[in-house]
Design brief:
408 residues, alpha+beta, 6-stranded antiparallel beta barrel
Length: 408
């Protein structure tokens, strides 16, 4: 849905904060409603942590290092060990399609299921009963992903990766607990305040349909330009009332809002971007790490923000680069100005074979106060071996795509 340059206006003194749209088969947008505000846009989801066991695991790289570290720890009287942070971890299960010709093209004969394990920690590891040279590794994580079947596929290969799109971290014979029944995450209700319904929504309010409709919620800044695109959500109106903001506006109560929503802690970032794209450098620095990550997401979504400035020398202000998101904000700002974004495949740091993306023209990046990031990110490592500090990996990637970095 290409809406980054779209601008909406309405003839009211109230600011317009969101628009409900749907995309037709020919790409044309249908506007369902203009709304002055949305209540329930920010939600703190309850994490669903699960325990999984990699049975018969042959770990490599930094996963092997984590296992060895855990095995050399002193064990508490109850048999437990100190949890070990595993960084990023993804699982792919490859299996033959039942009834398919194994000699056929691979994409016809085989299928796969994908999961990401969010914030995984290692809780236990011990020699595997399947093979003494292998280990059974128990981890706790939030499982992100679904499979169309609830039973483990036969003759499958269970592969572990350095996050989505990352390099190989080993394999195992199976993962106990992965193929479990997981209900869809509840999408809490939402109230749209001060709505001006379009013709299509007016018809639905008069004659509701059992199957409902799906729309996309666009968040706008004060000028009416789209600043963020929320995911699709069902438009199931359970109640409508005249709005306190005046006739003919109405307030709409929806049974469900978007399944994925920003957390309340990042609302100040939304408020800042609502006033328009930033014009002052370093505006992101006042926010905590989760706010900086949200700032970087706004910058990435901004049309044209990834277009580098023409200067052959750019300057990165490193005084506040104390976390990974801060580095993304500072680098984007150095390359494309306040609120800018440097479009780069950062999965290359995790072993993705893309190798990064070349900038339109090589340039020199002067990184001021680089030692701040070196100290703050000394313990962060995302490379496959888990041996290179994050800053060194970033410097290596920038050099590979033609950027000369001067550390000061």
């Amino acid at each position: 849905m290409q809406v980054e340059e779209a601008i909406w206006t309405w003839e009211r003194a109230l600011p317009l904060k969101c628009v409900l749209v749907s995309e037709e088969w020919d790409g044309e947008l249908t506007v369902w409603a203009h709304c002055a505000d949305a209540e329930g846009l920010f939600v703190d989801p309850a994490p669903r942590r699960e325990r999984l066991t990699f049975v018969g695991c042959a770990p490599t790289g930094r996963l092997r290092k984590a296992v060895e570290r855990a095995r050399h720890q002193s064990v508490a009287p109850d048999g437990s060990i100190e949890p070990v942070d595993l960084g990023e971890l993804a699982v792919i299960v490859d299996f033959p399609v039942p009834g398919a010709d194994p000699e056929a093209a691979s994409h016809h004969a085989y299928d796969s299921h994908h999961w990401e394990l969010l914030a995984p920690v290692l809780l236990d590891c011990r020699p595997s009963a399947l093979d003494a040279s292998l280990v059974d590794v128990t981890v706790e994580a939030e499982v992100d992903g679904r499979a169309w079947q609830r039973t483990e596929p036969a003759d499958a290969r269970w592969l572990l990766f350095n996050g989505a799109g990352g390099a190989d971290l080993g394999d195992c014979r199976r993962i106990d607990g992965l193929y479990a029944e997981r209900p869809l995450r509840d999408a809490p209700p939402m109230r749209l305040i001060g709505c001006e319904p379009g013709e299509r929504l007016l018809r639905r309010l008069v004659r509701p349909r059992a199957d409902g409709d799906w729309v996309t919620l666009l968040a706008l800044d004060r000028s009416g330009r789209v600043m963020r695109l929320q995911e699709h959500m069902p438009l199931e109106v359970v109640a409508s009332r005249p709005s306190a903001l005046g006739v003919p506006l109405v307030d709409l109560w929806l049974r469900k809002g978007p399944a994925v929503r920003p957390v309340p802690a990042v609302r100040p970032v939304w408020d800042a971007w609502f006033e328009g794209p930033p014009t002052e450098p370093g505006s992101w620095a006042a926010f905590p790490p989760e706010g900086r990550a949200e700032w970087a997401a706004f910058a990435a979504a901004r049309q044209g923000a990834g277009r580098p400035l023409p200067d052959p020398v750019r300057h990165l202000d490193g005084r506040h680069v104390t976390d990974v998101s801060a580095l993304a904000c500072a680098l984007g700002e150095a390359v494309a100005g306040p609120g800018g974004h440097y479009h780069q495949c950062w999965r290359a740091l995790r072993g993705c074979q893309c190798g990064g993306e070349w900038p339109p023209a090589p340039f020199t990046l002067v990184w001021h106060d680089a030692e701040v990031a070196r100290r703050a990110l000394a313990s962060v490592s995302v490379d496959t071996a888990g041996e290179t500090p994050y800053v060194d990996d970033v410097l290596r990637l920038l050099a590979r795509v033609g950027i000369t970095v001067e550390l000061r």
